[in-house]
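Tokens in:
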């Protein structure tokens, strides 16, 4: 029977599952290899053939209600004789009772390696494919990976290679490596089922046994039928141009303006005005009067000029009545700072939904509620509760936690990372993370996307948008709610449960999203991606002023998928011309405390020319100024021959010297288009991660520690690989 006919038969019989035999026949139609097997209707038929069977065999109870046969003792393995077969058949008959519809007889498939594969339907992301370590270890070890369907052969191979038990995918204890093509067919077959048979909502193939000769066989399968539990109604997409207009107001009305220090009604307008916003600012409060030397209007209707953006800080219960005034005043954009909506529980959620209905009917776009604000350095618009003002640049930052976002903004300001725009997206009642993704795609000023995400409204749309954006510019994301504790916190914080983090990880992997492991990674990655060329491979050369650092960096590279490439004889001979005979003669290149930066640059230039070098990490060359400052402080404290002027002049010379070293590094990156990442010897309050070099395409990047440099380079390499695979 064709798969559709089998499913239709099951539906007519009111069944939600296929029998194991039906399930395997369906899988065979999609190229998934199954075990040879015969169905017998009753114990008498088993007895009639028992003497002619090629032992050992497996006997299973068969029935549409027998979905967990192993737990009920309905699977008998390694049966060696006719008598054993009859005893097994009798046991299954008694244990299954009325649920028994027949028997399934299979040859005993032997192999030390067992995998699992499956299909399920995620309510956020839709159909997803799973692969991992199978048998009794599936739930115990959870060594599984996921991909969203459709999955092609390339994606399937990558997926298979991501399990932790990779050794089982090679020759293992005298057994040949698995038939990789067969494993790929299993996953692509499941993907095809997901895309062509909407009646199938779940498939479990466990185990997929690999024989000693490498043959892959699905020896058990469960197919569940029924409606796919997908959320049917999503909020309509917002036009990216409309979102863009919200970030480019020429006039702003602050509704709920206050003179009281540190109230939201004071924080917002004072930041905008102090930040030198060039547009017009109007303060609104029913009490009227004057605040900070400015006239206060009792209503937005009293403002005599057009308003592009209303920043609202009034209590939640007063926001809905405000909509009528905003509509009459033809204010189309609202930044709703006020909390007390969906994040507070069911009543707040109902209030938020009513607000959005009324706003949508009035043609008003709301960013928020419960947001920390926005900024656009290109027009000196700093409208956030935290008064930080990063410079203009190419990194767009969206955070579902306002506190997280503004902390990252402060770090960006401190480290010299340029920001294209920032949004604390709040509850995302109208503008969702998916809408922002569409905007990133068309915004030419956005060069790098950075996001802190706790939940998403439409997983499949997020995935598709991120995949498109990722082909044009790097997308970096930190996911909150990765653990059960984190997920619960995210639910209470954003008013929405975080989706299955493993499926979210799969979506990010397929879409080329660079995953940050912790908040600091977001800005480290942003700094590197916005300042350096992408590595074309994973081979790294390391320059270090001391041997210990080189050992640490080599270990870090190995742990992060980077290769510290052995030096060629030609490179060794070249470096012999510049370093003493006792240098390491290996990669890492120990500079044996050589302080001449001309030598450093000559070696770096030679390494970047080398075809087997894709990137350089140098350690300790920058940051000597901080070490020497300590030496100078001690010197002038004990020796009157040296004074403060000598110290200041020396430090200024060292500062210029290190800047020129960075400038030379940036220039050779421009020559060879390979990344060079530095690690400071020591840091102080004046050191920066990003160092701008005027007139150059790239920028200097120097991190405080080797692990941050290596982690960034490894993630850059993975993104570069993803781009190459889709070129």
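Residues out:
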């Amino acid at each position: 029977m064709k798969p559709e006919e089998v499913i239709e038969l099951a539906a007519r019989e009111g069944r939600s599952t296929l029998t194991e035999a039906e399930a395997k026949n369906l899988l065979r139609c999609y190229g998934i290899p199954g075990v040879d097997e015969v169905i017998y209707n009753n114990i008498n038929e088993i007895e009639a053939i028992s003497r002619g069977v090629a032992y050992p065999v497996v006997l299973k109870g068969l029935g549409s209600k027998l979905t967990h046969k192993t737990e009920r003792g309905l699977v008998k393995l390694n049966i060696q004789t006719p008598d054993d077969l009859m005893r097994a058949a009798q046991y299954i008959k008694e244990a299954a009772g009325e649920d028994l519809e027949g028997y399934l007889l299979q040859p005993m498939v032997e192999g030390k390696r067992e995998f699992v594969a499956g299909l399920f339907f995620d309510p956020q992301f839709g159909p997803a494919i799973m692969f991992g370590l199978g048998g009794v270890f599936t739930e115990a070890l959870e060594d599984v990976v996921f991909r969203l369907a459709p999955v092609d052969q390339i994606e399937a191979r990558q997926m298979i290679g991501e399990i932790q038990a990779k050794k089982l995918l090679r020759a293992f204890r005298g057994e040949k490596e698995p038939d990789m093509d067969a494993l790929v067919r299993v996953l692509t077959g499941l993907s095809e089922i997901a895309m062509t048979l909407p009646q199938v909502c779940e498939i479990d193939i466990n185990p997929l046994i690999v024989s000693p000769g490498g043959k892959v066989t699905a020896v058990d399968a469960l197919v569940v039928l029924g409606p796919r539990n997908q959320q049917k109604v999503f909020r309509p997409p917002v036009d990216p141009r409309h979102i863009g207009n919200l970030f480019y107001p020429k006039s702003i009305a602050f509704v709920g303006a206050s003179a009281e220090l540190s109230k939201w009604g004071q924080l917002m307008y004072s930041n905008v005005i102090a930040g030198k916003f060039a547009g017009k600012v109007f303060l609104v409060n029913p009490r009227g009067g004057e605040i900070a030397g400015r006239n206060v209007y009792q209503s937005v209707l009293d403002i005599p000029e057009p308003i592009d953006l209303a920043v609202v800080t009034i209590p939640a219960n007063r926001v809905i009545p405000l909509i009528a005034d905003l509509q009459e005043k033809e204010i189309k954009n609202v930044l709703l700072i006020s909390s007390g909506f969906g994040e507070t529980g069911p009543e707040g959620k109902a209030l938020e939904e009513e607000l959005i209905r009324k706003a949508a009917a009035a043609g008003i776009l709301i960013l928020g509620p419960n947001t920390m604000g926005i900024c656009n350095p290109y027009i000196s618009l700093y409208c956030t509760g935290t008064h930080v003002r990063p410079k203009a640049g190419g990194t767009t930052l969206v955070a579902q936690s306002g506190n997280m976002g503004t902390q990252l903004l402060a770090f960006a300001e401190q480290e010299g990372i340029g920001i294209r725009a920032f949004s604390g997206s709040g509850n995302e009642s109208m503008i969702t993370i998916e809408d922002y993704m569409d905007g990133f795609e068309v915004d030419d000023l956005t060069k790098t996307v950075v996001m802190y995400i706790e939940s998403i409204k439409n997983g499949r749309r997020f995935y598709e948008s991120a995949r498109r954006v990722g082909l044009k510019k790097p997308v970096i994301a930190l996911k909150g709610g990765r653990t059960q504790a984190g997920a619960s916190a995210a639910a209470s914080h954003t008013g929405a449960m975080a989706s299955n983090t493993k499926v979210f990880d799969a979506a990010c992997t397929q879409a080329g999203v660079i995953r940050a492991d912790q908040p600091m990674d977001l800005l480290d990655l942003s700094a590197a991606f916005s300042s350096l060329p992408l590595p074309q491979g994973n081979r790294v050369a390391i320059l270090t002023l001391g041997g210990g650092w080189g050992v640490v960096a080599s270990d870090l590279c190995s742990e992060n998928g980077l290769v510290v490439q052995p030096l060629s004889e030609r490179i060794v001979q070249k470096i012999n011309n510049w370093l003493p005979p006792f240098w390491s003669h290996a990669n890492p290149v120990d500079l044996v405390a050589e302080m001449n930066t001309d030598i450093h640059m000559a070696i770096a230039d030679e390494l970047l020319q080398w075809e087997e070098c894709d990137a350089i990490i140098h350690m300790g060359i920058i940051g000597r100024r901080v070490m020497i400052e300590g030496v100078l402080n001690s010197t002038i404290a004990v020796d009157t021959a040296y004074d403060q002027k000598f110290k200041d002049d020396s430090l200024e010379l060292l500062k210029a010297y290190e800047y020129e070293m960075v400038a030379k590094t940036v220039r050779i990156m421009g020559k060879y288009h390979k990344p060079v990442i530095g690690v400071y010897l020591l840091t102080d309050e004046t050191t920066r991660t990003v160092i701008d070099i005027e007139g150059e395409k790239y920028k200097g990047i120097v991190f405080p520690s080797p692990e941050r440099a290596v982690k960034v380079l490894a993630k850059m390499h993975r993104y570069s690989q993803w781009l190459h695979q889709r070129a």
